[in-house]
Each structure stands twice: as C-alpha cells, then as structure tokens.
Amino acid sequence: MDKALTLPEILACIGNMLDNHNVISCMQVCKSWRSELEPLLWRSFTFNKSDLGYAELRPKLPLLQKNAQHIRQLVIKQMDPTFQSFFTQCKQLEEVRFVAQEVDEDDDVDQIWDRFSDMINNHGRLRKIVIDSVPWPMTNKVLETMERCPKLIVLETKEVELDVTQAQLYLKLCSKNLKRLSTYADDYDHPEFPDDLVFQEMRYLDICHADGISMDKQLTWVSRCPNLISLHWESWGGQVDVAKLSAILSGGACPNLTALHLIVNLSDEEITQILEAAPRIEKLSLPRTEFGVRSMAALRRHFPTLRDINLQFCSKVTSPMVQEILRSCANLQSISAEALNRSDIILQPWACRGLQMFDVGIGFDDENDDSPMTHYRDVYQRLGQLTELNYLSICSEDQSDTYSRDPIMVSLEAGLDELATLTKLTFFSCKTLLENNDLRKAFEAVEWMVEHWKKLETFEASRNVMFMGAGDNMVEPYAMDLLMDHGIKFAEFISPGRELDDGDGDFYEGDEWTDQEDYDDHGYDMDDFETYEHYGPIDFSSDDEYADQYTQHMHFAYTGLE
C-alpha cells in the first residue's frame, strides 16, 4: 500500500481532488510527494498589476518560467512586457482571462494586444478565452489570432468595442468552433449578417445589453444557430419582436432550444405566445417580467419537462402558482420566486423530490391561531423532504425590506432541526431573518447548521447578526468565528436600497455609520465578506465537458477571496 502511494499516477489522481491548502499539507509528507504534487499549485495562476502593490508578492521571472508548463488557468491583470517570455511559455493553458482595467499613459494599446496575440497564437490546448472589461478597443490582429486557436470553444467578452471591420471578424470567429459565447455590454458598429454566416457549433448563447446591434438583428443571430440549446437574452431597451422569436421557436430554426432565459420587457400576453410556440421547455427564466395567469396556463404544457424556473421579481406570480409548479413538476431541479405561503404549502405534497435549489420567500400571512410554532415546523418538515438540495434560500428580498408578509422564523424551536436531512446543502440563506431572534437563539441556529450541514460552504445573512458581541448581549464565541473555524464563507445580504460603502471605507447600517475599523479591530478582514445580488437559480447541468457552469440568473459576487 505504501508503495502504491508513491506511484505518480496514483498521486496525480489524489492531487486532482485536493485544493491548494491540502496540496501543501501533502507536500510535507516526503520528498517524492513534494516532487509530484508541487506542480499542482500552479494549476491556476493570477498575474496581478504592479501598480496595485502586488508586484512585490509576485514570483520572480525564473520561477514563473520554470512552472509555466504546469499552468492550466491564467488570469492576466497586466500584460507586462518584461514577462512576455513567461506568457508565451504557458503552452498547456486551457483557459486565459484578460482583465486589465486601465492602461498607463506610456503603454501602447496595440502593443498590449500584440503581446496577448503572441501568447495565444495557434495555441493547441486553449479552450476558453475571457476578455473582461478591457477599456480600449480590440485590434484586428487579436481577433484573427483567436480564430486560429484550433480548440477554442468558449469565448466571453465584456464591454469590448468593435468597429465595423472588427465586428465582422468577431462574428466570423464566433461562427467557427465556438460552442458557448457570452457577449455582455459589448459595443458593436451595426454589423451585417451575410446569408452564408451560420454558427453551426453554437450551443449556448448569451447576448446581454449589446449596443450598436438592433434587437431584430440579435434575433437574426439566434436564428443562425441551428444547434442552440440555451439562449440568455438580456436588454431593457427596445421592443422584442415576439412574432419573430416565436417563429424561430416553432419553425425549426433552433429545434434543440429548450432553455430560455429572457430578461427583457415582456407582457403576460407576449410570454404566453412564446411558451405556446416552444415545442419543449426545460429551463425557463423570466425575472422582472409580467408573467401572469395567461402565461401560467401556457406553461402547464411544459410541466413534464420543466427542470429549472426563475420567476423572481414577477409581481403577478402568486403563491398558488408557485405551489402548483412544485406539486406538478416531478423533474424540477431549481425554482426561484418571491412568495409561497404556508397555507398553500400544506395543501398537497411536492412532486419535485429531486430539487437541488429552492430560492423562494416563505410567508405566513393567514395564520390566526395560537400555535405558530406548529406552522413553522410544518414548513420545515416539507423542506426536509428535499434531500437533494444543495442551495436553500427561504426569504425574499421583498420580505427582508418591507416585511409585507410575516416571514418564517429561523430557530431550533421553530423546527430548523427538521432540516437535518439536507446533508448535501452547500449554500443557505436566511437574509435578515435571524435579526428577528434574540442573539442566543440566533447563535444556536448557526451552531446547529455548522454541526449538521457538513458540506455547507456559504452562509448568507445580515452582517450585524454575525457579529454577536455588543455590550450585555455578548455571545461567545462569535458566530463569525464559528463559521471561519469550519471553513464556511459568510455572504452578507445587502437589503434593497442600502449602500454598502460610502466611499471612505465606512458601511451604512440603516440610521448609523459603522467604521470598517471597528470590524478590523475584532480581527476580521473585510475582504472575507461576500455580497450577492440575486436574480434567480443556478443551472446545475452542463452539456459540455469544458464549459463553465451556466447560470440562468445574473449573479454578481463581489469578493476579495480568490
């Protein structure tokens, strides 16, 4: 057995399942383990900008060159010319992300793009390129170079400027081997679509807030993707040609298009027309639309195939609608909505026992007897039957802001212990609900979560609950300490309309300002906080081995943790 653990192929299998912290621990076992496992520390590397003070922490050039062959994912925040030899030696790259945010006055933009082009030219293993908010136009050369990457199948661009020529080169690049494309807030110069331009390999297409290209031409783009599986279309400007979109769905232009994520202005009648035209819907995301009674009637035809649905911030979606989806869609894996009342929950059992994500605000607006704890436990018992859950959020933003409905209580007394069956849970959110408890009960709830949810990775709540230490209300140990000790990230929920930072490093807490220094004095690094703005559920499936997990909601994570 001991000899087996020295074999490179065995160590490679073990190492691929470890994070960097555990790799470092294993490297201390013996010299052979160190030799085999050390390259794994270089699987992902971030090359930071020198003007942010990170240059002093950056490994020296010889060490970078020595380990360039081990890097599979590279994040570049500065195309430093003195390190060009290192960039070009990263020949095993599978993913590169270019996120430069500004250029020094002495830098030549064309030269920066030339260096990036030299780095990826004819790259035999490169499968994914991300150009993230680079604030200067791309060049013809870099677009032509990306086209020559033989295995490139994923491209993400954000806030990129493309003139007429560059837009045509961009579309030509996208029509080659790309299977997944995300274009977010890119600025096109009214590109044309030649009749012979077809995006044959495209499976996943995200067009979000594209500028300089009409919504009609965006639909033309969609119609040229005959093998499209998923469309994420986002724009708050312009009128959607619903008839054209419906014709695309019903006319066979995209016969495999079963995932629609439409964050555009749509009325109840327009949504109905789209759902009636679609042969089959598996994933549907319609946040902030006028989804209503007519849309619900059209959706029922798709209940047998529906897997994911996002109806967040849809004011016409009622609790009985949400309950009907849960009790009727046996294949449902993910649901996101605003309101679900206890009175509807108890009417009939849910059919979706394989649900992986539940993101619905649970309310109690119809309870008049003297046993509210029994009502809470009824809900927790129903949730406890969803043993496949890995994401659970039980409070909507509307509840946390206005409390228009009485929310569920989060405490052991109310029945939180009924969720001991959720052994696969990795994310739990109660937003501001713990603020309704006294500090000791709130801490007991957090303590129970840590003890029973062994796979929990992220806990979302309001920050002032997590710092349970104020005068006579001191609770030891702090809930934050407890989470940190178990490697659980704390994600702070920011209520709608609340400012996180006033620009001076201070945080606004309702009616008073709290200095960041107050938290630093307790030993907490504010970079350890994550804040989320939720727009719906995660798509847990991926039809492409090398594509990132697709999200059917805009989910921005601002965090200092890499």
UniProtKB/TrEMBL annotation:
Top-level taxon of origin: Eukaryota
Domain F-box: 8-47
Coiled-coil regions listed in the entry: none
Pfam families on file: F-box-like
Gene3D superfamilies reported for this sequence: 1.20.1280.50, Ribonuclease Inhibitor
Protein name, UniProt field: F-box domain-containing protein
